[in-house]
Structure formats: C-alpha cells, structure tokens
C-alpha cells in the first residue's frame, strides 16, 4: 500500500463518525441564523426613517448573517445539512434566493472544485485564477496586465465579488446543463418576487438602501474567505500524477483560525481542511472533528493577520513549491 493510500484510509476512519447530520442541530442553526437575520432587517427598516447612517453598521452584522446563511446553503448542496435530499435541496434553493446564488448551478461548479482543488493540471472551474511563474512569464504583456488587475485585492474583493453575486449569477452561459439553466431562472424569479414583496411595503429605493450594503459586505467577505482557503503561505499544489485527495485536503486547504465571533458568523468554514477531507461533514461538526483527533495537529493554523498578508501572493512558483508576490518575481 502506498503512503498516500495509507493516509486516505487513516483519515477516512477518523472522519466517519462526523458525517451524519443532526436534525436538531441543523434546525437550531437555521433558527439562530435566519430569525436574527429577519429581525435585523426589520430594525434596519425602522431606523432608516431616521437616517441611512444608522442602517450602515447594522448592515455589516446582517452581512455576517448572510455569510452564515450561505454556509448552510453550501452544506445543503453537499447533502450534509439534512439526511433528506428533498430538504437539502428545498432549503438550499430558498437560501440561494436570499444569497443571490443559483443553487444547482453554483454547486455543480463547487463539486468540480472539490475534485480538482490543488491540482495544477485541472485549474479553471470553481477556483481563484492562479498562474504559475512560468505561465506568467510566457504570456503577452496585455495578458500579464489583465492578470495583475484580476489579482488586485481591491478589484477581486471590493469590485469583483459584488458583481459576481449581483450580476454574473443572473445569467446562463454556453455549456450550462438544463438543470443549471433552470436553477438560474428559478433563483432570478425568486429574487424578483422577494424584491417586489419587500418593496411593496417599504419602497424600492428603501429596499436598495438596505440590501445593497448587506450584499456588498457579504459578497466581499465570502470571496475573501474562499480566497484564503486555498491561497496561503504554506499551501501545497501538485501536478495530476502526484495529486491525492487526502493529501491536498490536509496540505492544500487552510485552517483559518478566527476569533470566536467571526468563526460563528463564518459557520466554522475556517476548518476548511476538514471540509475538504469530507464535504459530508456538516459545518457545526468541523471544529469537533479537528480537535478530537490528534492527527490534525500537523495542520498549521492561519491567523486573521496572516490571512490578510496572503493578499500579496499572486503566482505559484513550481520550482520552490510556494506562492510568491509580483514584487518577489521582479527582484529575481
């Protein structure tokens, strides 16, 4: 038995007891996330009559709750939140409307991400566009310029993230399956009904004054979390012939150690190495799985400070097996 297969067997045994969702914990997580989300919306509607500046700080909290709802949406797509596929899909589709994300379309790309994460020969679907040093050096000046713009944190998180959720998710594309197209149409219809319903009572302008900041902060936060999950100083990526699922989960997905309150809002997704070992583990069991098994002690945590420092890392250096910055490349 090879070392990789031996590790697979060990990790498979460790995570087995955590893959069964608890109906009690799942329902409670829905309640303790959705009820405060709705309550906060009602409070924002009330304070808006006095000043929009009272709404803005509340929208940051609402964005955190939106991110937490997205993690539940994410678990539903993996079939990890409920035992029933019907309830996973039903809750997932509803939360997709709230988070502006077509359920079946997003999860199709996301499942591909799980099968290809950390594989240098299978980049391009459900991941952050990353070039190797050699690839960057061998493309045209125009393409290098475009790549630098794409990898700029301001563009990626503060411009690209909200455009992804507000605009890009509204359209189908060539290559979408029938199910994916229907998912986009159903989500758009649901959003239209939700917007019309709320606007009927408070006005469309007031709806935008509340919703746009919420979706803006939530999308920027979500994309940042996704970025850090596979773009950090000690990340390992492999060519296809060396790629192994368990190895990539442990060495290619981050353990983002967040302050307790941020861990709650992010639905424990910082334990991303556990999630990549098994996407069937519900988010509320990820932390327990990590700390109850000594084998995961080898995973070096990434702090919030270190997470922000990863923003300067833009290229994969195959020769030295690490991510580097444009500045580091230029000094060579």
What features would you describe in this structure?
- By secondary structure, this protein is mainly alpha-helical.
- It has one domain.
- Helices cover 64% and strands 4% of the residues.
- It contains 16 helices and 5 strands.
- A 3-stranded mixed sheet has the order 1-4-5.
- Helix 3 runs antiparallel to helix 4 and helix 3 (52-77) packs across helix 10 (204-230).
- The radius of gyration is 20 Å and the shape is globular.
- The termini are far apart.
- The mean pLDDT is 95.
What does the secondary structure layout of this molecule look like, with pairings?
Blueprint (H helix, E strand, L loop, with lengths): L2 H13 L7 H26 L3 H26 L7 H14 L4 H14 L14 E2 H5 L3 H11 L1 H14 L11 H25 L1 H27 L14 H8 L2 E3 L2 H6 L6 H6 L8 H6 L9 E3 H6 L5 E3 L4 E3 L1 H5 L2
Parallel strand pairs: 1-4, 2-3
Antiparallel strand pairs: 4-5
């Amino acid at each position: 038995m090879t070392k990789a297969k031996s590790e697979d067997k060990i990790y498979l045994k460790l995570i087995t007891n955590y893959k069964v969702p608890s109906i009690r914990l799942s329902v409670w997580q829905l309640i303790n996330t959705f009820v405060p989300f709705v309550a906060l919306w009602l409070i924002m509607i009330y304070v808006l009559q006095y000043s929009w500046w009272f709404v803005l700080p509340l929208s940051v909290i609402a964005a955190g709750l939106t991110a937490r709802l997205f993690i539940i949406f994410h678990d539903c797509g993996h079939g990890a939140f409920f035992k029933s596929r019907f309830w996973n899909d039903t809750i997932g589709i509803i939360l997709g409307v709230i988070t502006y994300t077509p359920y079946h379309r997003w999860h199709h790309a996301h499942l591909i991400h799980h099968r290809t994460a950390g594989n240098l020969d299978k980049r391009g679907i459900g991941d952050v566009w990353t070039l190797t040093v050699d690839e960057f050096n061998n493309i045209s000046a125009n393409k290098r310029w475009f790549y630098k713009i794409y990898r700029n944190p301001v563009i990626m998180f503060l411009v690209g993230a909200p455009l992804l959720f507000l605009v890009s998710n509204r359209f189908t594309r060539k290559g979408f399956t029938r199910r994916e197209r229907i998912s986009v149409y159903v989500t758009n219809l649901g959003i239209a009904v939700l917007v019309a319903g709320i606007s009927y009572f408070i006005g469309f302008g007031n709806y935008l004054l509340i919703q746009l900041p919420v979706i803006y902060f939530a999308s920027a936060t979500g994309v940042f979390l996704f970025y850090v999950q596979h773009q950090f100083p000690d990340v390992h990526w492999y060519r296809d012939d060396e790629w192994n699922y368990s190895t990539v989960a442990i060495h290619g997905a981050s353990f983002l150690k967040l302050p307790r309150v941020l861990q709650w809002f992010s639905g424990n997704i910082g334990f991303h190495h556990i999630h990549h070992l098994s996407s069937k583990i519900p988010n509320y069991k990820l932390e327990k799985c990590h700390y109850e098994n000594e084998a995961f002690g080898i995973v070096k945590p990434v702090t919030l400070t270190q997470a922000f420092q990863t923003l300067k890392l833009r290229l994969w250096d195959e020769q030295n097996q690490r991510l580097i910055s444009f500045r580091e490349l230029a000094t060579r």
